[in-house]
Amino acid sequence: MSEPVPYTIVGDVSDLPDCAMGPRNIVWWGNIGFMLIEGTAFLLAMAVYLYLQSESPSWPPAGDTPPDLAWSTMFTVGLFTSEALNLWVSRKAKAKDAAGVRRGTLLMALAGLMFLVVRGVELDHLNIRWDQDAYGSAVWMLMVLHTSHLTTELGESAVQSAWLHTHRIDPDQFSDVQDNCEYWTFVVLAWVPIYVLIYWVPRWT
Amino acid sequence: MNRAWGLAGCLALGGCSGANSVLAPAGYQAHALLDVLKLTVFVGAAMYVLVLAFLTLGIVRRRVQESGDLPVVEPADAGLHRGLIAWSVLILCGLSLLITASFVLDRHLAAAQPSETLEVRVTAQQWWWRFVYRDPATGRWVETANELHLPVGRTVRVTLGSNDVIHSFWVPSLAGKMDVIPGRVNVLDLTPRRLGWFRGQCAEFCGVQHAHMAFDVKVESEADFRAWLANQARPAVSPSGVDAARGMRIVSTQCAACHTVRGTAAAGRAGPDLTHLGARRRMAAGTLALNRGNIEGWILQPQSIKPGTLMPATSLDSRGAEAVARYLEALK
Amino acid sequence: MTVEAERHHALLRTWSDAPGIWGFLTTVDHKRIAARYVLTAVALLAIAGLLAVDMRLQLSQPNMGRMGPQGFNEAFALHGSTMLFLVSVPVMEAMAMWLVPLMLGARTVAYPRLAAFSYWLYLGGVLMLWIAHALDVTPDLGWFEYPPLSGPAYAPGHRVDVWAQMITFSEVAALAASVNIVATILKMRPPGMTLAKMPLFIWAMLVASLMTIFALPSVMLVTSMLIADRLVSTHFFTPTGGGDTLLFQHLFWFFGHPEVYIIFVPALGFVSAITETFSRRTVFGYIPMVLSMLAIAVLAFGLWVHHMFAVGLPKMGNSFYTAASMAIALPAGMQIFCWIATIWSGRPMFRTPLLWVIGFIVTFVIGGLSGVMTASAPLDLQLTDTYFVVAHLHYVLIGGAMFPLFGAFCYWYPKATGRLMSERWGVVSFVLIIVGFNVGFFPMHLLGLEGMPRRIYTYPAETGWGPLNLVATIGTFISTAGGVVFVANAFLSLKRGKVAGDDPWGGSTLEWATQSPPCAHNFNEVPVVRSLAPLWDRDGRQAMIGLSATCREVLVTSAVNAEPQYRHKSPAPSIWPFLAAVATSILFVASIFTPWALVWGALPVALTLIVWFWPNRPRANATDQQVTRS
Ligand code: HEA
Ligand code: HEA
Ligand code: CUA
Ligand SMILES: [Cu+2]
Questions:
Q1: Contact C525, C545 (CB under 8 A)
Q2: N or C: less crowded end of chain C, CB within 10 Å?
Q3: Which atom of ligand 3 lies closest to the CA of B204?
Q4: Among C222, C237, C243, C216, which Cα is nearest to C155's?
C-alpha cells in the first residue's frame, strides 16, 4: 500500500556459510532446550524420591529390601564405557568423517540395544513392585523415566545410522550426529544421581 | 475502632449477622488477624493512592511542545530517576513493615497458650463434622457432631484429622482456617472472647457437597459449657410415648449401621452421633434448621435436600419417618 | 517490474503455502499458525466466560436451584482449567509466535514445523476436554485437583484423567512453543540487536518462555503420577501406602505459581510496547524494566508455598515464603512506576490500546496489593480458599493479563488485518468491561472477608452474602456486554475498518516496517538495528541483502551480540507435524485407559517423527561413501 521506506544496504550475507555446527547451529539450541526440560523433570523426580524418604520413618520402608547391585553396576559401567565411544563418534562428526560416523552410530545403536536388554534384567532385580508402597512407586518412576530416554536414544541412533548408511552426508547431518552424541552424554550423566539414589541411598540409611 | 470496621463491613453487606465474618472478630486470634489486615489495607491503600495520583497527573499534565511530532529515543530523565529511587525505597519500607507485622502476628498467635484440661478432636468427613471432647470430670471421650461448644475466655487447642479427603476447618469470627489432611494431624488454637453463636464452614473443596459442610459454634460461659458437656456425656433419654418408642426401634434397626445413639443398640460410626441430636440448632452440617418437620423430610429424602450426601434414602413410609422424627427430636 | 519487485515475488513464491485444504494442514507459516492459536483461545475465552456467567446466575441469590452441585462443580472446573491451561498460556505464546519474528525482522520462527506441531497438539487437548464434556466425562474438581479427592478411591470414572491428560496435551504444546521462541529470540535477532537493544516485548517473551521450560515439567510429572496412582495403583499420594497428599500440592504449586507469571510477564511486554508507541518516547527505565522481569522470574520459583499456608507447615518456613512473595512487590512496583513515568514524560495519544494500559494499571495494582495481603502467612489463614482469593486471581488475571491482551489485540489488529478497529466502539467496550469488571469482582473481596468460601454451589440466606453476590452478578452482565461489543467490533472492522497502511500508529519496532498484513516472508531484506527503537531513528533505515529468494533461507546470528553467523535452511511445509500431533493425541487419550498405550501408541508417534525429520538429501553412492569431506 504505502511506499516502502527506503533503506541503505549495509551488508551482504550471501558470503556467509550455509551451515554451522555446535552452538552456532540453531538446531543445537532446540536440543539444549529439550535437555533442560527433561533435566528439570529428572531433578523433580529425584526430589520426589527424597521427599518421600524424608516422610518415611525408615528407608526403604520396613519389609522392603534394596535393589540388587550386580546388574545395575554392570549397566553403569557399560554406560560409561559407551560414553567413550560416544565422544569418539562426536569427534568423527566434528571432523566430518563420513565413514567414521556411519560406523560410530551403528555401534551406538547396537550398544543402546544391549543396554535395553541389561536394563530389562535390572528391572527384574529391583526387589519391589511399583504398587507395593510409595518407595516402590518412586523407584519405578525414576527407572521408567530413564528407560524411556534410553529407548528414544536407541531409536534415534538406529534411524540416524540407517540414514547415514544410505545417503550422502552433508554438514547438517554431521551436526545432527553431534547433537545426538550430546544427548547421549545427557542420558549418561542423568543416570549418575539416579543410580546413587536408587541403589545406594537405601543402603546408607 | 474494631467495631467501626465490623460496622463498615456490615453496612456494605446491607446488614449481616456478623456470625461468620473476619471483620467482626469474637476471638483473640481473629482480633490479632484483623489488626494486621487493617494495617495491610492501610499500607496498600496509601500506595494505591500514590499510584493513582501519579497516573492522573501524568495524564492531565500540560505538555511542553519542544520536539515537534518526532518520537524520542531514550530521553534524559534525571527527575524521574530520582523518583524511581524514592519510590523503590518507599516500597521497601512498606514491605519491611508488612513482613515485620506478619512475623509479630505469628508470635502473637503462638502466645495464647492452650489450657491442658480441655481436649477437642475434630474429624472432618464428607460432608459433616465429628467433634469429640474429653470430659475433664470423668476423663471419658464424648462424641457429638456438627455443633461445637467452647467456653469463653479460654484457649482451646483443637486437633484436626480426616479419614477421607482434605477439608479445612474455619470459623472466621474466631480464627484463621486450618486444613484437615488425611495422614496428618494439624492443630488450631481458638480463644473465644464473646458469647454467642458463630458459623464455621469447610473451606477446602472436598467433593460434591462441599457447600453444605458448615457447623455451628456456641461460645458460652464456663458453667454453661460444663453443663452442656455433662449432658452430652449422658446416654440418650428413653422415648416417651408410643410413637417415639416405635421411632427408637426403627433407629436401632434401620439406622444403626451408620448412627450411634448411646444407650441403645445403635452404634454405627459412618454418620453423625445422634445421641443428643435434639439439642442442636441445625442438622446435616448446617443444611437445615433442626425441627421435627425437617428431620422427617431429611430421613425421607436426604438426596433431594443434599444431593450426593452419603446418607442413603431409607425405605421408611411417612408414618415411620414421623415416629423417628418424634424420637430424635426428643433426644435433647 | 523493478528488480526489487521481482525479488519480492520470488520470495513470495518461495514462502507461500499451497492453496486450499492441503496448504491449511501443511502450513508452517508462523503467522497463520499463531492466528489459529489466538482465534482458538479467544473462542474458548468466550465459552469459558459464558460458563462463568452461568455460575454467577446460580450464585446471584441464596439457595438458587439453577444448577445442582455436580453441574456447578463441573462449571468452575471447566472454567478455571480452560481459562488457565487453554486460554491464557496458549494465547500469550501465540502472540509471541506471531510477533517475535516480525519484531526481529526475521522470516519465520526457529523451528516452523515444531510450531505447527504445537498448535495441532494444543487443538488435540482442546478437543479432548470438550468432547469429553459432551460425553459427560467432565472434570469436576477445579483447576487444581488435590488427591485423595482426585485419587482412585474418591474419583472413580475418567473425569480426573481427562483433566490430567488435558494438561499433558497443553503443556507439551507449550513446552515446544517455548523452546521455539527462546531459540528464535536468541539466534534470529537482526544484526545489531544485541541483548541490550532488544525491545522490552522480546525480553518479556524470552523470560516467560524460559520460565515455561523450568516450570511445566513439574505439572507434567505430577499429573502423570496422579494418573499412575489411578491406573496402575502406585502410592505417591496415598498415606496408607507411605505416600503423601502434600507432595501433590508441592509439585503442583512449584509449577502453579510460576504459571501465573508465565501468563503475566508477556502482558508486561504488551504494556511496554503500547506505552512506548502511544507516549511517543521509549519506555522510561529500560534497565530497571529488564531487571524487574528477571527478578520476578527468579523469585517466582521460590514461593510456591504461599498457596499452602493453611496446610500446617512449620511457621518459620512460612515466614520465608511470606518475605519472598512480598518481595515481588518491588519489581512489580518499579515497573508500574516506569510505565507511568513514560506517559508522564511523553506526549500520550489516548487511543484504545493506551486506554487498556491505563485500565491495566488501575486494576492490576489492586490485584497485586490483595496478593501482598494473602502473602502474609498468618493473614492468609483468613483469606485463603475464600472469595477474597477469587477476587485476587481475577484482578491479576483479567486486570493484569487480559486487559493488556485486549490492548495488544487492538494495537496489532491493523498489522494483522490491514484495517483499523473502530475507535468509538473500542472506547465503548473498554468502558463497559472496566466498569463491569470492577462492579463484578470488587465485592468478592468483601464476600471473602464475610466468610464465603470458594467453590460452593450455593449458600443459605442467613449468611448475609446475598446482596453482594447479586451486585457481582450484575457487574458480570455489564462486562459481558462489553465483551460482545469488543468481539463485534473486531469482526465488523475486518471489512469496514479504515485501511491502516504499514504503520498506522507510528510504532518504534520492526514489525511496523513491513506490510499490513505482512507478506509470507515478512521482510524482503534483513533489517539492521542500531537502537532500541529502530523505526524512530532519525537517520534512515539499514538492511543487509543476500538471503536467497528461491529457497527458504533465514539468517542466524550470535546469541549475545547478534552478529551474522550463517544462512540456515528453514524447513518447507509438511503434513508430518499434523500427523505426529494426531499420533501423539491418540497415545495420550489411550493412556487414560491402559498403560500399554505408552508402548503401542509410541510406534505411530515414532514413525511420524522419523518421517518428519527425515532429511531429504541425495542418496549415497559408491564413490561418495568415501569422499564426503566438504
Ligand atoms: C496473572 C496472574 C497473577 C499475578 C500477577 C499474581 C501476583 C501475585 N500474587 Fe497471586 N494468584 C494468582 C494469579 C496471580 N497472582 C492466581 C490465579 C491465584 C489463585 C490460585 C488458586 O488458588 O486458584 C493466586 C493466588 C495467590 C496466593 C495464594 C492465595 C491463597 O490461596 O491463599 C498468594 C499468596 O501469597 C498470591 C500472592 C501474589 C503476590 C504477592 C503477587 C505479586 O506478584 C503482586 C505484585 C504487585 C503489586 C504488589 C502491585 C504493584 C506494586 C506497588 C504499587 C508497590 C507498592 C506495594 C507495596 C508496598 C505493598 N497469589
Ligand atoms: C484468565 C482467566 C479467567 C477469566 C478471564 C475469568 C473470567 C471470569 N470468571 Fe473466573 N476463574 C478463573 C479464571 C478466570 N476467570 C480461575 C482460574 C478460577 C478458579 C477455578 C477453580 O476454583 O478451580 C475462576 C473461578 C471463578 C469463580 C469462582 C468459582 C468458585 O470458586 O465457586 C467465579 C465466580 O464468580 C468466576 C467468575 C468469572 C466471571 C464472571 C468471569 C467473567 O469475566 C467472564 C466474562 C467473559 C465472558 C462472559 C465472555 C465474553 C463474551 C464474549 C466474548 C462473547 C463472544 C461472542 C462471540 C464469540 C460472538 N470465576
Ligand atoms: Cu469439606 Cu469442603
Ligand atoms: Cu502464587
A1: yes
A2: N
A3: 2
A4: C237
Which residue in B has a C-alpha nearest to residue C459's C-alpha?
B211
Three-class SS string for chain B?
CHHHHHHHHHHHCCCCCCCCCCCCCCEHHHHHHHHHHHHHHHHHHHHHHHHHHHHHHHHHCCCCCCCCCCCECCCCCHHHHHHHHHHHHHHHHHHHHHHHHHHHHHHHHHHCCCCCCCEEEEEEECCEEEEEEECCCCCCEEEEECEEEEECCCCEEEEEEECCCCEEECCCCCCCCEEECCCCCEEEEECECCCEEEEEECCCCCCCCHHHCEEEEEEECHHHHHHHHHHHHCCCCCCCCHHHHHHHHHHHHHHCCCCECCCCCCECCCCCCCCCHHHCCEECCCCEECCHHHHHHHHHCHHHHCCCCCCCCCCCCHHHHHHHHHHHHCCC
Residue in chain C closest to B185 (alpha carbons) equals: C312
Percent of chain C residues past pLDDT 70, beyond the cut = 98
CA distances C267 to C105, C204, C208, C318, Å, are 21, 8, 10, 29
> Mean of the pLDDT values across residues C353-377?
97
Chain-chain contact of A44 with C251 (C-beta, under 8 angstroms): yes
Binding partners of A (≥3 Cβ pairs within 8 A):
C
Atom of ligand 1 nearest to the CA of C84: 17
Q: CA-CA distance, C330 to C298, in Å (whole number)? A: 13
Q: Whole-prediction pTM value?
A: 0.95
Name the residue among C15, C31, C129 with its Cα closest to residue C570. Answer: C15
pLDDT of the residue at C570: 93
Q: How far from chain centre, in Å, is Cα A154?
A: 10
Chain C stretch 199-238, residues whose beta carbon is closer than 8 A to a beta carbon of chain B: none
Which three three-digit cell numbers place residue C259?
A: 504459571
CB A181 within 8 A of CB A161: no
Ligand 3 centroid–CA B212 distance in Å is: 8
The answer for residues whose C-beta is within 8 angstroms of residue A200's C-beta and 6 or more apart is: none
CB contact under 8 Å between C628 and A133, yes or no, is no
Across the interface, do A11 and C566 touch by the CB < 8 Å criterion? Answer: no
| CA closest to A47 among chain C residues | C251
pLDDT tens, residue by residue, C529-561: 999 999 998 888 899 999 999 999 999 999 999
State how many domains chain C has: 1
Q: Looking at beta carbons, which residues of chain B come within 8 Å of C538? A: 70
pLDDT in tens, B256-304: 999 999 999 999 999 999 999 999 999 999 999 999 999 999 999 999 9
CB contact under 8 A, C384 and B177: yes
ipTM of the complex: 0.95
Whether the CB of A137 is below 8 Å from some CB of chain C: the reply is yes
- Say if the Cβ atoms of A131 and C232 lie within 8 Å: yes
Residues of B in contact with C537 (CB under 8 A): 73
Q: Which of C288, C333, C531 sits opposite B91 (nearest CB)?
A: C333
Containing structural domain, residue C284 = 244-494
Does the pLDDT of residue C135 top 70, yes or no? yes
B13/C550: higher pLDDT: C550
Q: Which among B16, B74, B101 is the nearest to C450, CB-wise?
A: B16
CATH superfamily of B118-233: Cupredoxins -  blue copper proteins (2.60.40.420)
In a domain, C453, yes or no: yes
* β-bridge mates for residue B219, sequence order: B150, B196
Q: Which fold has domain B242-329?
A: Immunoglobulin-like (2.60.40)
Q: What is the CATH number of the domain that holds C254?
A: 1.20.210.10
